[in-house]
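Q: Hi! First time doing this. I have a protein sequence and I read that you can turn it into a structure. Is that right? Here it is:
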Amino acid sequence: MKLTTAKVKSSNAYSDDLNSTGFGIVIHITLLAIGLLFVTPAVFGQQNESFTTVKLYTNLYTQTENFDQGGSRITDTARRSFVTNILELNFFNPQKKIDWGIDAYFRASRDHSSNDSPLETLRYENNGRTAQTSFSHIGPKLSWRFSEKIPGLSSKFILLIPLGQNGQNLNSSIPSLDNTGVQFWSQLNYNGKLAEQLYGYAELSVVARLGRDALPHNDVFIPFKVFLSYFPLQAVGIFSYADYTPTITNPSAFYFQAGGGLKIFPSPSWEIELSGGSFLAGKNTGAGYSLNLGLAYKIPSKKNGG
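A: Yes, that's right. Below is the predicted 3D structure, encoded as structure tokens:
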């Protein structure tokens, strides 16, 4: 058996990780505050009254391996890490079938040593060599509830408009933030109660990304996700999920991800979600893992004349 010597981080390295994490937390709080600027808190009313939610969902994905064309794991030349922050403003009216909202994407990517911490991506740097950060897309969305007889069935349509030219780095090793063209998302969602304290959710999407630069090419993929949630307490839930996503424009490419997490409702207005997942199988895609943090704040609309 071949023995290898593991590298031990110095105290300065740990300090750098803590500094980058602290800076990332500041960025997240700032993004959430930006969303809260657009809404005014009010006293909570009845469940049939309209309300607004402000959500910040942060995904940290990192990889040191890829799945090749045959589905085997191969070692990457370096660690590649990506942070995606999705800031959502959602406006709901239970008395109507159509709701609307706005999504904004703030991203960062980093090419670094396989021994580095993926938390370094939370520094949100632009150095022209190994890291970049940018608002990548913004756009409107519409949600439609089909029928009161099937309250858990709905659809969603999202149009994402690119911001700036920072998505592609064709002349450097920095991982691309995202496709730099327009994106169209169409989703069919269903959620319902399966048993006492047990809930299920399924989502089928069709996503078309129209590339504005030479790479990557236009692509269409179909994510299919299922969630199973159990609430042992009214304010605490645990869940597992699976995500299978084939690429239509490249039939040999797909990935399968599985994971789980925790939902906490510290008050009627706040929701916190922590989760993680691993890419277990795929072809022509990354073989990494993801860590996720979600924060949501619910704000009922003011009563008429209030």
